[in-house]
C-alpha cells in the first residue's frame, strides 16, 4: 500500500490567535513582540500577520526595525502570551490525535500525521479528509492552517510550506520529483544557511541540481550522513517513521511559595492558579485522571509526597481542588512549614476515546 503522510502547520500562528481574540486586528498589520524589557522597544518580533509581512516584518527581526518598516500604518504591537498559544496548540493536537492514530507533533503549531490506513493509500481520499480537518479546526478554533500530503515526511513538510495561508497541497508519489525539482535546496528540512551556502558554492541551487549531483562528490563535500539524506530527499524519498509520542501519562505543576508556610489555606491559595492551569490542560486534551498527588518541599529541601487514588476517573475541578486540600492538610500537619508545593495528576485516560469505546460496546 502507498504511504500517505500529512503535515499540518498553522498560519501565522501567534498573530492569528491574537486576531481570533480581537477581530479588529485582522484589518491591521499586527506584530507579536518578545519584549526584552531593557528599553521600551528592545526585543524581537515573534511573528506577524500577513498584512505586516507585506512591509517586510518577519519573525526574528528587532521590534525597532519592525516599527520603522510599519511607520505611518496603524500597526498594532502585542506582547507574546505563550500559555495562551500553548492552550490552542494543545486543543488542536488533541483534535488531531482523536482523528488520526499516528500523530507526531513537530513544533508548537505543526504536526505530521499518518493517513495511510485511513485512506488505504488513496490520495483523493487523503485530499478530502485533510480538507475536512481544515474545516474542523476553522470551525472549532477559528484558525486557518496549511496542509501538505505526500509519500513521506520530507515531501509533506515541503508541501505544507509551499502554499500559505490556508493551503492544501497534495503531492502524489509519481509527482514528487517534479514537485520538488524547481524549489531551492533550502526548502528541504535540515538545510539551514550553512549547508545551503556550501551547496551553492558547489553550483547546487535547485533541488533538481541536488538530485542529479554525483553521490560520491556530495559525500566529499558535506559528509556521508547528510549527503545520503539529501540525495534521497531531493529525489522525493524518505523512510523516516513518525515519532509517536506516548500518551500523556501525568501532568504536574510546582510553585515556590512567597514565604515558607505551614498554613494549608495560604498554600492552597498560592497553588490555585496552577490547579486551574492544570485543569485547563486536562480539559483541552480531554483527559481524566484517577490519582492526585501533592508534593511538599521543606525549607531543608527534603521532598515529601502524599497521594490519593479515586474510585473513578474524573476531570472535575472540584474533586481536584478538594483532594489537593485534603492531602495538603495532612502533609502540613505531618511536616510543618513548606518552601515549595506541587500537584500532580496521573493514571490518565482519554475521555473521548473512552466515550466512543463505551458507545461501541453499548
Ligand atoms: N516563532 C517565534 N520566533 C521565531 C519563529 C517562530 O516566536 N523566530 C513562533 C511564532 C510563530 C510560531 O512560532 O507564530 C510558529 O512558527 P512558524 O515558523 O510556523 O511561523 P508562523 O506560524 O508565524 O507563520 P507561517 O504562516 O509562515 O507558518
Ligand atoms: Ca506556522
Ligand atoms: Ca511551524
Describe it for me?
Strand 2 (30-35) and strand 3 (43-48) form a beta hairpin. This protein has helices at 13-21, 50-53, 63-69, 82-99, 116-119, 123-141, 153-162, 176-180, 193-201, 207-211, 215-222, 224-234, 264-284, 317-335, 351-361, and strands at residues 5-10, 30-35, 43-48, 76-79, 103-107, 110-114, 145-150, 168-170, 250-261, 287-297, 303-314, 338-346, 349-350. It has four domains: 5-12 and 83-173, 2-Layer Sandwich (Alpha-Beta Plaits), CATH 3.30.70; 14-80, MutS, DNA mismatch repair protein, domain I (3-Layer(aba) Sandwich), CATH 3.40.1170.60; 181-234, 5' to 3' exonuclease, C-terminal subdomain (DNA polymerase, domain 1); 250-361, DNA polymerase, Y-family, little finger domain (Dna Ligase, domain 1, 2-Layer Sandwich), CATH 3.30.1490.100. Helix 13 runs antiparallel to helix 14 (317-335). The strands form three sheets. The chain has a five-stranded mixed β-sheet with strand order 5-6-1-7-8. The protein is an alpha+beta fold. Mean pLDDT is 93; it is low at 356-362. Bound molecules: 2'-deoxycytidine-5'-triphosphate (DCP) and calcium ion (2 copies).
Amino acid at each position: 500500500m502507498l504511504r500517505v503522510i500529512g503535515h499540518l502547520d498553522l498560519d501565522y500562528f501567534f498573530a492569528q490567535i491574537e486576531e481570533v481574540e480581537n477581530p479588529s486586528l485582522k484589518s491591521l498589520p499586527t506584530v507579536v513582540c518578545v519584549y526584552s524589557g531593557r528599553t521600551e522597544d528592545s526585543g524581537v518580533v515573534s511573528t506577524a500577520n500577513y498584512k505586516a509581512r507585506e512591509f517586510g516584518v518577519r519573525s526574528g527581526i528587532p521590534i525597532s526595525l519592525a516599527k520603522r518598516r510599519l511607520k505611518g500604518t496603524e500597526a498594532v504591537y502585542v506582547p507574546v502570551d505563550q500559555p495562551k498559544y500553548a492552550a490552542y496548540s494543545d486543543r488542536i493536537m488533541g483534535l488531531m490525535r482523536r482523528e488520526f492514530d499516528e500523530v507526531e507533533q513537530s513544533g508548537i503549531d505543526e504536526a505530521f500525521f499518518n493517513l495511510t490506513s485511513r485512506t488505504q493509500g488513496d490520495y483523493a481520499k487523503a485530499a478530502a479528509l485533510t480538507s475536512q480537518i481544515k474545516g474542523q479546526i476553522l470551525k472549532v478554533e477559528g484558525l486557518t492552517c496549511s496542509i501538505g500530503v505526500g509519500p513521506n515526511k520530507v515531501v509533506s513538510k515541503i508541501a505544507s510550506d509551499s502554499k500559505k495561508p490556508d493551503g492544501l497541497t497534495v503531492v502524489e508519489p509519481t509527482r514528487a520529483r517534479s514537485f520538488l525539482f524547481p524549489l531551492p535546496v533550502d526548502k528541504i528540512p535540515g538545510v539551514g544557511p550553512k549547508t545551503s551556502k556550501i551547496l551553492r558554492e558547489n553550483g547546487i541551487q535547485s533541488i533538481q541540481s541536488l538530485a542529479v549531483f554525483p553521490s560520491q562528490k556530495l559525500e566529499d563535500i558535506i559528509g556521508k550522513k547528510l549527503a545520503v539524506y539529501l540525495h534521497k530527499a531531493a529525489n522525493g524519498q524518505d523512510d523516516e517513521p513518525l515519532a509517536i509520542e506516548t500518551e500523556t501519562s501525568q501532568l504536574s505543576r510546582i510553585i515556590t511559595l512567597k514565604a515558607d508556610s505551614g498554613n494549608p489555606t495560604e498554600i492552597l491559595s498560592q497553588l490555585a492558579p496552577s490547579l486551574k492551569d492544570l485543569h485547563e490542560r486536562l480539559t483541552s486534551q480531554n483527559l481524566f485522571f484517577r490519582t492526585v498527588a501533592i508534593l511538599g518541599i521543606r525549607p531543608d529541601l527534603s521532598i515529601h509526597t502524599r497521594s490519593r487514588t479515586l474510585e473513578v476517573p474524573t476531570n472535575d475541578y472540584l474533586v481536584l481542588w478538594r483532594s489537593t486540600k485534603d492531602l495538603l492538610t495532612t502533609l502540613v500537619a505531618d511536616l510543618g512549614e513548606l518552601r515549595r508545593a506541587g500537584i500532580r495528576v496521573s493514571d490518565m485516560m482519554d475521555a473521548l476515546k473512552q466515550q466512543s469505546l463505551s458507545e461501541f460496546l453499548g
